Each structure stands twice: as structure tokens, then as C-alpha cells.
Description:
By secondary structure, the chain is an alpha+beta fold.
Amino acid sequence: xxxxxxxxxxxxxxxRIRSKLALLxxxxxxxxxxxGDGTIIYVGKAKVLKNRVRSYFNGSHNxxxxxxxxxxxxxxxxxxxxxxxxxxxxxxxxxxxHPRYNVLLKDDKSFPYIKITxxxxxxxxxxxxxxxxxxxxxxPYPNAFxxxxxxxxxxxxxxxxxxxxxxxxxxxxxxxGQCVAPCEFExxxxxxxxxxxxxxxxxxxxxxxxKKQLQVKMEAAAEALEFERAKEYRDQILAIEAIMxxxxxxxxxxxxxxxxxxxxxxxxxxxQILYMRSGKMIERHATTxxxxxxxxxxxxxxxxxxxxxxxALPKEIFLPQSxxxxxxxxxxxxxxxxxxxxxxxxxxxxxxxLQSWLNVKVVLPQRGRKRQVxxxxxxxAKVALDEKFRLIERDEERxxxxxxxxxxxxxxxxxxxxEAFDNSNIQGTDPVSAMVVFIDGKPDKKEYRKYKVKTxxxxxxxxxxxxxIRRRYERVLKEELTLPDLIVVDGGKGQISAAxxxxxxxxxxxxxxxxxxxxxxxxxxxxxxxxxxxxxxLPRDSQEFYLLQRIQDEVHxxxxxxxxxxxxxxxxxxxxxxxxxxxxxxxxLLLKHFGSIKKIKEASVEDFxxxxxxxxxxSQIITAxxxxx
Length: 629
């Protein structure tokens, strides 16, 4: 059977995209546009995925966007919990996949971090490089300005040194109270340690306490009519709120991690794996499968199997807690401020076994950003599973509507059960026929039937159709099987007339019959019905026409497969039957013992003793088969 044409592939892709567009969530995230080869050609971010992705397929665009849209055949998306997360994820994905239509964020520039240097006299600085120099890194921040604003605030609150090299005497920062002046005064290590701890606490989530202090100062300044000072405090509060939003997409410790989350519904499980490399989340993988036992146990089994097939291990694996651990945590754990490291629950039995087996750290985060990235994996699994079922529901609705619409075009009460026939032969040899059944627009493979044509000699398609229709519906009457609402035959007026003649005049059945006429390229061209047959004006871009295409392709595939099986058996039989001394019984015995003609041809004379064939006949068999062209 020929493969689908370019137009058919494009139409199927457009239909798939339309279905997925209808299911996009009202959440922030990143989207990945793909071409016909499955290659990612564009990565973007959105505050609302539904609105942004739909905009590509609606309205007019500039030349670049038109070229991009013309190549899109599919898309994926990753849900995030904020637009800032989407921004950082977008950067990571672009650097990972290098999509051809992305011109921004493709350089090696990274997001800024705030660093406390590891020196005798530590200082604060903003950097885009995270290296192993024992310095403390915090971030990333969405832009350099925001990071610099935070640093300025910290410089005012904590007087670490400001100079790259110590000057000979104190500078203006000392007089402003923003530097302890190690250039002129001896500074105790405990003073530095205390400031570093305070800054670390602030940058790891303790900014709320500082905001409260600034709020009190702002209100006091306003009460004293010091409005400029009050405005300065207000701007500092706004700066904290703008830049200290915690990011779950990147962590500053540069570790490689695999982060797992899962969701279950209607007996199915979706597992999402977020891949974090050098502290950055660069990719994700989703797997959906049915599960049959306890959800968490089956999830742990999946993780174990995943690493048995994928030996490359990260430094850490993040797993969600079991439902029992989650309940215990809620009952026993007090609410605490979030930190970057958070808290980790002790691994359950499955996690402990996994950790021991893989020799890698398995973490079950309870709080903080580690817990948040696990929750992100869970939410993406939930979205993917929900999309799966909604797509199935939409597909079923479309199939039912297509079958109902087809009945309306044919002016029949129903087309819920459709039985379709196709004949297959090559120059009249090994003629066969096949029947497929579609119920509510969906194939029902357990109802498929195969027919070896018995009474027709030569390539007579009409008589073949008459024989198969007769055999099928004689059995339906005899066994009181369900009659179809519609019979579809492969062909035009002649095939329709032959089927109706057998049904009405021989069997007394009045079942609607239609024929699918093919074009010069052997593709579905038009629908005919009635006797004499007339063309049904079915739009080629309709769901009803697409349903007929699927039916015709499926019955043709089934018939061709059956014909090839029979022809292959016939060729084998003819090769062996032509050898004197080999009848049907010995032919079956040889094929059962050796498995194929090729194995018989490669066998030695001694090998035939196992099937009670002597040396003389064995030599004749080997010679005859090896002489075959």
C-alpha cells in the first residue's frame, strides 16, 4: 500500500494541531514548535499558553512568522508556575536545542547571580559565571538590573568591603556606613561570619523579615513627613518583591539531577522526568502507560526500570513522597520558611532500595525549592494525562459525529456499524477478500474477517464481490449476527450492483450499500451509492470524507496483508510440491521441522534423517531447491 501523500500528511498535522490548540491551559510556560521530521524549530514562552500558541495559527503575520508557521507540524508545551520560570526555561531550551527560528537567547550569556566571595575580606558581587571557588552563589535573577538592585540593598544593610583591592585609607562607603573599612581597621572574623550568615539567610528566603523592617521604617518616615526617605524604603521593598521571586527552573549548586513526578487517572499513569544539568533544567520526558497495582509502587518500579535501561546517572534523583509520607508530614511537620535547600524526607523503602542499587543520592524533598520542582514535574504529568483523555474524548466525539454525518449524506437512519470489503489478487492468482468493521467511526479488529475466494476463476472483481457478500451475510442470517447499518465496497457501479443483487435478490436483505471510487493514484476520490449508483456530494475536507479514507485504507491494508500471506504459502508449496516424492504430508512435515524453505535449502543430507527422509530423496530436495533462481 502506498504511503500517505504530502497533502494528506499536512492535513493530518493540521487536524492534530487544531485538536491540541483546543486543550491548551490558561497557565504560563514554554512551547516547542516542531517540523515534519519532529525537529524543534522554535521555542517560545508565554504568560498564558493558550493565547500565545493559538496566535500563531490565527490572523496575519510578518514574513518570518509566516515561514515558521508554514513549517509547523506539531508542538509541545511545558507548564511553569510563573512567567519568570518560563523565561529561564526558554533560555535553557534554546541553548539545548538551537532552534533555527530563534535569534534571541542563543549566545552563551547566562543569567546573573549574586556571589559572596571566599576571601579574607569577603565582598558582594554580581556574576554570570558559577565556578567551584568556594564562593556562595545565589540566584539566578531574571536580569542584571534586578540583581544589581538587590546587591545595592544588601550593600546598605550589610557593610562588607566594596573595593576590588584595598585602598590606603577609608573611602566614602565607610563614611556612609556601608563598609567596615578593613583597609584601615582590623575586622574580626566573627563579624564577617555574622554578616555572611545574615546575607545568606536573606537570599535564601529571609527577605520577608527585612521587608517587614523596611515597612516599619517607611511608615515611620511617612509619619515624620520624610517622604523622600519613605519613597526610598518603598522602592527597596518593590525591588525585593520583583527580583527575589524564587526560581524552580535553575539551582545555583550546578548539580545534575533527574526530577520525577507522576499523576494517575482512570487506570493510567503519566510520569514526567525533568532533566536538570549543571543546575539548569534543559529537557523533559513524559511516558504514559496503564498501571494495575498501587500507584506509588508501580511508579517506583518504573523508575527502577528506567535506570536499568539508562545507565547514565545524575548526581541526585528527586522523587515525590509516597501518599503515606505526605500525610505524616502534614500532621507532624510545622510550617517553616522556604529555603533553597529545603528539607528532605528520609527515603521510603523503595527509595532506599533504589539509592542502594544505583549508588546515587535519592532525595524526597519536603520543603523549599526542591519540593517545588518535584511539584512542577507532578503538575506537568497531570496536564499531560488530562490532555490525553481530553484528546481521546474529542477523537471519539469526532468519530461518532463523522459516522452520524455520513448517514445524513447517504439519507439513511444510521451508520453506527459499517462493514467494508476489499478484494486482492495479482493477475488472478491467490484471490482473497477481507472485511473490516467500524463501530461509531472506530475500527473493531476482533470483528475483522478474511476470505479465500473459492468459486471465481481469474481476476473477476464483480464475481469475487458476489461470492464474499453471499458468504458473509448467509452466515449473518444463519447465526443471527448483527446486521450492519451500512456496507462499503471498494469500487463503483459494478461492485455496488453486484453486492445489492446478492443481498436483495438472493438473501432478502435490504442493507444500504455504498462504493468508494479511487483516483489514478489509488486514493479515495468520491462516494457512490444506490442502484443505479449516483455520486454523493461529500466535501473532501469533511470529517465524513476523512472517515471513509480511514476505512478504505484499513480494509485495503488488511486485504493486502492476507494476500501476501497466502501468496507466500503458495510459493513455498509450489517449490516443494514440484519435487518427486514430496506430497502434502511431507511438505508440512518439512516446513514444521525446518521452519522455512531457506533453512531446508541450507540443511545437510544428515539433517533430513530427523524427518525419516533417506539420503537419495534428501539429495534431490537440496538440489532442486538450490537450483531455484
